[in-house]
Input
Amino acid sequence: MPVLNKIQMKLLLLMGIGLLSFSTATAQAPKEIPEQDLVKMKLKIHKEVDAQYKKLLENPDKDNYMSKTAMDFQMDTTRIEQFMKQRIAIDYSTMGMVQASYDAEKEYDQLLNKYYQQLLKLMETRDKPLLIEVQRNWLKYRDSERKMNALLTEEKYSGGGTIQRVILAAAYLEITKKRVFELQGYLDRI
Output
């Protein structure tokens, strides 16, 4: 089975389980979330995560040491994941899931730039061109992978259906998210 199909199946399974457990627990229809409520939700999550972060800095776990960069990364990704999870819990319509995935991808793209810049600053001047080349190659990969995913969601390959929009949005998110984790892995090695 091709890797792409495995990824799609995992994403669908995770979304399906989440939707099933949420919808059976609440038995409510999905509802669109007004922009001001999204802003409030995001602020609340940021405050909660910031409080966790502060607590970690004040009382470090000596058995589970994490560098400041690793803690920053954990908090950054937690903010995105919690926000996406809460959004989908309220609006689990196809459009709600698609929009949550695209918005999370944009936030991961911001993290990608943040951690890329950190890595660039830490590298010696003579080694920076390699990182720049690798990142340019990744951007080409990302763009071609997006085209391939978009092509495979067309009706002639997928059979159609609104779930294809969810699959496409989730694929875009996973491509960027994976790269953010790769960059963090580079930072952890320095």
Observations:
- The two ends are 36 Å apart (CA to CA).
